[in-house]
Amino acid sequence: MLSVQEAEAIILSLVQPLKTEQDRETVSLETANGRILATAIASNLDFPYWDNSAMDGYAVRYEDVKDCLPEKPVTLEIVEEIPAGYQPRITIQQRQAARIFTGGMLPQGADTIVIQENAQKKDNLVSVFAAPQYQEFVRHRGSFYQAGNPMLPSGIALGASDIAVLATAQCVKLEVYRRPRIAILSTGDELVSPNTPLQPGQIVDSNQYALASFVSNNGAIPICFGIIPDQPDILKDKISQAINQADIVLSTGGVSVGDYDYIDLILEELGGEIHIHSVAVKPGKPLTVATFSNNCLYFGIPGNPVSALVSCWRFVQPAIKKLSGLRDNFSPTFIKATTKQELRGGGKRETYLWGQLRVVNGEYEFSLAGGSHSSGNLINLSQTNGLAVVPTGTNFIAQGTKVMVMQVD
Ligand code: AMP
Ligand code: MG
Asked: What residue owns the CA closest to ligand 1's atom 16?
């Protein structure tokens, strides 16, 4: 059986990132948050845009004040006042200065700022008591960024910090990758939707909703196909529609070896090439991964709600990230944390135990979710933000030990 790492590597090798012209769309700066930049950004503006003052004080000529001392102050004539946003009109001559405020544009002739703490103003005169450094507190035009240089690379997910940079550079329209379309099918004769009263033997389809949230959380568009009964003809028809509409298809249920588990057979009938049948992971051992000639990537995920989400977090998420056009960091983030409880593993399979990761006194701690860790139980899955990993071959990890915890959301 494939190890988790082998399975992840195979999945990533099967993903073709969105990269054609049709995979790009233009969005406004206001709607760009969370999107993935498709073209590298360069600005035609320098930053700072012009020489300006980093402090409140006086714009002076260094020559005039370089020798001043507390006992030997130099007095300069104030010829202009320059608040931020004002364009200076007067060139500073010998023994002149301008009153200037933070962000104010440096006037012609001046090259240095004397902070107001080192000066004393009286009417239109200012006495400087301490010599500044040459060019002190001047932010020079283009010193942080020069027009035309690379500013942001393509393949990054835009967050508040990137949006700030883009706004400053006046990039009001941006090319981003389109959001991947991900079809979700819940298979099983026993399933009913959450708004249908339960009959004996039925089970509410929670996977449809869980996977739709998962897909949205990953910046993709869920296409919900609803509940599909365990009838090969109907399954085949719906799966075929899904493959034609979506970049990735996620179906839950029907991938074990039970009498009603038809998925693998149908995928083969539809011309799919199956790359993975199962992975040495707990929960979630049966996992079908197939590709189709239109590049659609198919994940046949086990039906147990916990197995379904764990499979999505561990195997589908890296695929979505790569498909989306992100340049790197496809794999989940693992954090070293101290486990508050003992952890039990599945021997031959890498085991993922759900719970909560939190920082206590500056150190990460993992608290195992209370209640049963049967993959059939999903009630204690709520508020899961970490999955502790018990490596293959390890059956027991003592409380207080450092373990790797996979971050999930
Ligand atoms: P399967 O993988 O089809 O054998 O399903 C395994 C278990 O998960 C069964 O107990 C199913 O009833 C349950 N299950 C399957 N699909 C769903 C679903 N969409 N929502 C909730 N439970 C499900
Ligand atoms: Mg089933």
From this structure: 303
